[in-house]
Amino acid sequence: MRANRCVRVCARLILLLIVTATALLAPPPPLFAAGARGAPGAPLADPGLPATVPAIGRTWPVGLRPRVLRGWEPPATVYGPGHRGVDLAAPAGTPVRTVAPGRVAFAGSVAGRGVVSVDLTGTGDPPLRTTYEPVTAAVEEGQEVEPGEVIGSVQAGGSHCSAPCVHWGLRRGEGYLNPLSLLPPWLLHRGPSRLLPLA
């Protein structure tokens, strides 16, 4: 009798492990909005730049896992059409955080839009620079920032998106890169946890 009970409990535990593993390995919900392009790993805007971006990001700029309204679309030429960053859905007033440690290179207004730029620590010469707009700055030029530190909030106006958003960019020198490449896979593709009953 006790042996049968032990077998049933073991079978349930094995089933629970299988179900949990299946849930954890299931593909996450779509990150990109319908029609958005520019997933990580797309080619660089400047072929003369290093082909890799270190995945040093520790957090998203806004929210826990924001929707990408428009992805990175590298231009074919320096002045060609494209989208030199990604647009992340974020209502006005949303806190904007730096994704990795660095130093504020610029915090101010450009053509009526608030912009914050951060040179990322230990990323070479010239360093990788992230930009966030439209953002009301909460930091000053020269200030050291840590991953997840609030550097401002999304402005109510000045966005080029059809819905409220923050434009997140990445550059090295004059070349544009895909900012999503800064995020490691565990952060980029993290989906919700799923728990299922034993029975």
UniProtKB/TrEMBL annotation:
<keyword id="KW-0732">Signal</keyword>
<protein>
    <submittedName>
        <fullName>Murein DD-endopeptidase MepM/ murein hydrolase activator NlpD</fullName>
    </submittedName>
</protein>
<dbReference type="Pfam" id="PF01551">
    <property type="entry name" value="Peptidase_M23"/>
</dbReference>
<feature type="signal peptide">
    <location>
        <begin position="1"/>
        <end position="33"/>
    </location>
</feature>
<keyword id="KW-0378">Hydrolase</keyword>
<dbReference type="InterPro" id="IPR050570">
    <property type="entry name" value="Cell_wall_metabolism_enzyme"/>
</dbReference>
<dbReference type="GO" id="GO:0004222">
    <property type="term" value="F:metalloendopeptidase activity"/>
</dbReference>
<dbReference type="InterPro" id="IPR016047">
    <property type="entry name" value="M23ase_b-sheet_dom"/>
</dbReference>
<dbReference type="InterPro" id="IPR011055">
    <property type="entry name" value="Dup_hybrid_motif"/>
</dbReference>
<feature type="domain" description="M23ase beta-sheet core">
    <location>
        <begin position="82"/>
        <end position="179"/>
    </location>
</feature>
